[in-house]
Amino acid sequence: MSKESSPDARVRFEHGLPAHMMAIDGTWRRDCIVNDVSDMEATLTVSTSMEGLNLKEFFLLLSSTGLAYRRCSLAWVNGEQVGVTFLRQRGKKKAAKPPRDREELAEAEKGL
After folding, report:
1. Beta-carbon neighbour count of residue 34 at 10 Å?
2. What is the pTM of this model?
3. Can you list the domains of the chain with their CATH numbers?
4. Residue 95 and residue 76: Cα distance in Å, rounded?
5. Residue 56 in 3-state DSSP?
C-alpha cells in the first residue's frame, strides 16, 4: 500500500482490497476489488456483468458484515475497471471540535 502526496491523495492497494457493491434497496450485489481510494472517489475492478443494474446510487461494502460502507455513484467505466464517486449525506453537520485547553473550555461554557 502506498500513499501519494497531493490534495486528492490516493491510497493504492498492491493486491486490491476485496469488497462488494450492493444496490441501495438490496436487490443486487456484486463482488469487486478496490484498487485505489481517496476521500472522494475510488477505482474498482468488477469481473461480473453490470449491465442493466441501477448504478446511479449504490453501496460499496467494505466489510462482510456490512458495518463499513460508503454510498457511491458511478463515475466512469473502462472494461472491468469502474470509477466511483462517494456521495455525502445531505444536511449532516460536522461535529464541533472539543476544546483544546482550559481557556477554550471556559469560553465554551460561557456560551451555554
Report:
1. 19
2. 0.70
3. 2-86 (2.40.10.220)
4. 33
5. coil
